[in-house]
């Protein structure tokens, strides 16, 4: 049997890591400590499973929901002579489809964020177009005239004005009345 703790004065701990070892993460979490990727679920599969298996089929999308609704269906069967089970069956179909659809949307947003390179969930809903980037607008001031580069033209922040000056090494200071 192997043991840790060969140093003098340190107690022998059979099969245990040294106390200075970093804590182990769960197998589902990524090594960098970030959130694990979401799991994709199909609303069609959820419908089929809950239609044929009722609350037990709900386990596909929600383990806790499936267990709770299965217990409710059993109790409902005993107390209401089967009517409670029918109600639980219908609830499980609706719950399964809605939850699978929500999980699928979350997964699609995750995929969109990965493809955009951010690595974080995209703020917009998948399927909606993103607006085009705004063009670069220079700040107000004297700039080389687009029509004649030998002149400076005043840009007021939204359009070119009629004010021009011959171009020197440095632009002239802003005019007070322009």
Q: What would you say this structure looks like, in words?
A:
There is one protein chain. The protein is an alpha+beta fold and 178 residues long. Among the domains are: 39-128, no CATH class; 138-170, no CATH class. It contains three helices and five strands, in the order E-E-H-H-H-E-E-E. The strands form two sheets. It has a three-stranded antiparallel sheet with strand order 3-4-5, with no helix packed on it. The longest helix is centred in the middle third of the chain and has 34 residues, at 83-116. The radius of gyration is 33 Å and the shape is rod-shaped. It starts with a strand and ends in a 12-residue tail after the last strand. The mean pLDDT is 77.
Number of helical stretches of at least 4 residues: 3
Strand content: 5-15%
Give the averaged pLDDT, no decimals: 77
Helix/strand order: EEHHHEEE
Structural class by sheet pairing and helices: alpha+beta
Shape: rod-shaped
| Total number of strands | 5
Roughly how many Å apart are the termini? 88 Å
Strand order of the largest sheet: 3-4-5
Radius of gyration of CA atoms, rounded to a whole number: 33 Å
Low-confidence stretches: none
Report the helical percentage. 25-40%
Main sheet: strands, sense, barrel: 3 strands, antiparallel
Key attributes of the depicted protein:
three-stranded antiparallel beta sheet, 3 helices, two-stranded antiparallel ribbon, rod-shaped, alpha+beta, 178 residues
